[in-house]
What does this fold into?
Amino acid sequence: MSGLVLHPLNAALIPLLGEWQGPGEGTYPTIESFSYGETLVFGHVGKPFVAMNQRTSARGSGLPLHAEAGYFRPQGDGTVELVVSQPSGIVEILTGSITETEAGVEVDMSSVGVHTTPSAKLVRETRRRYVAEGDTLTCDFWMAAMGEPLTHHLRSSLIRRA
Amino acid sequence: MSGLVLHPLNAALIPLLGEWQGPGEGTYPTIESFSYGETLVFGHVGKPFVAMNQRTSARGSGLPLHAEAGYFRPQGDGTVELVVSQPSGIVEILTGSITETEAGVEVDMSSVGVHTTPSAKLVRETRRRYVAEGDTLTCDFWMAAMGEPLTHHLRSSLIRRA
It folds into this structure.
């Protein structure tokens, strides 16, 4: 995808582009804490969005755990929209801000809609924050689910691979 | 992803698995008809879902047009759920049926929810049908948008590449 000229609206998201890998930790009041390995790819095709593709695997066995795919839509005024689909039967629509920092960028978004398939577990609300600083990327995810209020659930600390 | 054992719930979707390519045609009452090239990949990681990743490009220039990513969730009773996100700022939740045929499978689904980001064009309703027969796959997409009722929008005729 890298042969195509970046769309100007994506300029502030340049620090995210590439492939990232590293460990993550999951916690939530209703479950036992767990750790995982994450691979996260941000790419562009010259159009005004950035595609995100993520997968996680169990530490040790390497077996697949979670996955998700979505698209960032920078609006050109420092705000951004994100759509995400997950194999757990969840789709999210989020809006938030892109803040350019000295060493990279911070993207912080809250859900304006979380919707689930009939058989999926209900998630009412989410928040996502991606902080890129050079070749490190920290990802945080909050959710309101299982009767809990919006609560921190996942943090991963990734290193740029490509 | 092919080194992992297929989850039994995915058995009826085996005819979809792989990479498909071919031409498509788009029509809608509010726009000029257009043609495109499509690449569509269905994969699994041993869990009870099938990941879908699609992209289209303009005939001639080869420049990217549409893209989407999602997950099929077969329920084991002949029904299936699908979540999809699109860079146009749309997420879809669909439910429908998996019908095994002599030469493959037909998956026909209608939206139970279509949701859009604040800046996206409104889509009220969608229907998707995927018909695999051996090494050919026919994809149809209907949508209700721009004030039109549910109307056929896209058809692509793909050949298995992998």
About this structure: The domain at 8-160 of chain A is CATH 2.40.128.20 (Lipocalin).
